[in-house]
Design a protein that fits this description.
The chain is 80% helix and 0% strand. It is an all-alpha fold. It is elongated and about 55 Å long.
């Protein structure tokens, strides 16, 4: 792994664990075993530029994971069940939802930084696009699919935040069983 990729990987984990404000530049330097000059060589605008790189790296991993799951299943309900079940298993194994826990960073930074807010907005649009595509394949109109995709995103993001806050997988387990059944109501 090259130095820039290593910095992004380590900083992503630190930001997920402690939030943007909870991680100082010196902590990143120590964890990466690099100098300040090396950090600024790769991220000339500093910590916020590094955060955006971390978020973009997570974006790719998240959307790829969701796309793979959604291609494996015939219906949106089946795909959602498999995806949420995977989140539950990850949480129960690791005590967090690795790779999916960017919500706390967004809430912390979105009001402070337009580039960070835009990066998150782009990811939510990509995720909802995956949901919309599958919902349209299931026979929903594009308008209904867009509304349902927004609801799915809010359910899952809220569930992840509740799991992290309460230190239990129960919120995602509830969503796991309720959300696919809600789709049948539409």
């Amino acid at each position: 792994m090259d130095t820039k990729s290593q910095i992004i990987y380590i900083a992503t984990n630190l930001f997920q664990q402690k939030g943007y404000k909870g991680v100082g530049v010196n902590e990143i330097l120590n964890a990466c075993n690099i100098t300040k000059g090396a950090l600024y060589h790769h991220f000339t605008n500093g910590k916020e530029e590094l955060l955006i790189a971390c978020l973009q790296s997570m974006d790719q991993a998240i959307t790829t994971d969701i796309e793979v799951i959604f291609k494996q299943y015939q219906t949106t309900g089946e795909a959602l069940y498999a995806m949420i079940e995977k989140l539950v298993k990850n949480f129960e194994r690791e005590g967090t939802v690795s790779g999916y826990t960017f919500s706390s960073i967004v809430s912390e930074m979105a009001s402070l930084s337009e580039p960070v807010r835009n990066t998150r907005s782009d990811l939510y649009a990509k995720i909802q696009g995956i949901y919309i595509k599958k919902l349209v394949e299931d026979g929903f109109s594009p308008e209904n699919a867009a509304s349902i995709a927004l609801m799915i995103t809010a359910f899952i993001e809220g569930g992840i935040m509740l799991c992290l806050t309460d230190k239990t997988s129960e919120p995602l387990k509830v969503i796991l069983h309720v959300l696919p059944n809600l789709l049948k109501e539409f």
